[in-house]
Specification:
The structure is a homodimer of 195-residue chains. Chain A has 195 residues and is mainly α. Chain A has helices at 9-27, 34-41, 45-48, 55-75, 83-99, 102-110, 117-144, 152-164, 166-169, 178-192. The structure holds a DNA duplex (18 and 18 nucleotides).
DNA sequence: GTCTATACCAAGATAGAC
DNA sequence: GTCTATCTTGGTATAGAC
């Protein structure tokens, strides 16, 4: 039987972040009210402020946590000597990581302008770190003579933009399996940077 | 000398749309108030309702106008027999058209979820038309044996996603000229769909 | 066509009881 | 830790004077 009062502190915090994640992704940060989030969790709006100082912190927490997850997961990938293999590994990692977290990814790209300047700078720095990882791979490949890209920075952004596009259309259970998607994109990326 | 009262009807309408465009692109539809838009134009909030029935119509007008511009401009491009040449032309057109209208483009991608379902469907249909144009080129190329893409639909979305990425970083007067950007992206797209 | 004034409602956030 | 109640602000939209 559902309680309408009393303490739920053991799970409320995470539930608030989950609800905010879902609602921000669905309607956008600015369009979602603290009351909506509270309603989704099943508490009153005032109770949210036991877990977050304000709405902005809620957004920042979600985005920062996502970027931390991304960089941690990526840090677990081993680099080898062969740049082509590193690139193949990056493409697979990127697609899978992002498809597993559509809401987080959506927010991370759409809500940047709703961050305060300080929070924005922090997220941007993390994003830059991730991009530099890929750029390093491309630079290695150019140095090794296995890639031909006129500008590694632009190529980095182009590859990431292309891969991010997957999230806008892929639905599990659809026409293509995850493996097929990965193969298709790897094929295009590989050729795009090829000699 | 600035008037604080009186009729400005000859220019107010377009100025409202310009102000809304700028503010929506900067802060997001949901975060911008009618009062802000009015302030940017230099009228009182109530006056806006002589030009638009509501805020939603303002957004829809901007997005629909942008998609109409896109399709009209694209319709002016001549198709030739050579698929490779058509693709080259498409890439150049897309980059230039979109870089000339960063605010409109930004809104067209970011504010889709703030459209009512009916308005969303209308915009989606126009976007689909544009995508089908590119997909037709890719299909021709595959039929002619000059392109190798495992899936024309996915390749279409991948190419567009890659090209759209330009808008997130390109600034005129920066390190690269528009011609250089176009060359770099054409190089990658060409190779990505090559045999 | 724009103004001032306002109706009406919902926002973020806080206070104090339990 | 959550509730109810409320403060304060600002939102969209409308009415009626000029």
């Amino acid at each position: 039987m559902a309680r309408t009062q009393g303490s739920h502190s053991d799970i409320t915090g995470p539930r608030i972040h989950k609800a905010a994640l879902k609602l921000f992704a669905q309607h956008g940060y600015a369009a979602v009210s603290m009351r909506q989030i509270a309603g989704e969790v099943g508490v009153q709006a005032g109770a949210l402020y036991n877990y977050t100082p304000d709405k902005q912190s809620l957004l920042f927490h979600l985005m920062h946590g996502h970027m931390d997850d991304l960089l941690s997961a990526r840090a677990g990938s081993k680099r080898v000597k062969d740049a082509l293999e590193n690139l193949r590994q990056f493409v697979g990692f990127h697609i899978r990581f992002h498809l597993e977290r559509p809401d987080e990814v959506f927010i991370a790209y759409m809500e940047l302008r709703n961050l305060t300047p300080e929070n924005f700078a922090a997220i941007e720095a993390l994003r830059r770190t991730y991009e530099n990882d890929l750029e390093g791979i491309l630079r290695d490949g150019v140095a090794q003579g296995v890639f031909a890209v006129p500008d590694t920075k632009v190529a980095t952004l182009a590859v990431i933009a292309m891969l991010n596009g997957v999230n806008t259309w892929y639905r599990s259970g659809g026409r293509l399996s995850l493996d097929q998607v990965e193969t298709i994109y790897w094929d295009m990326v590989r050729k795009a940077v090829a000699l």
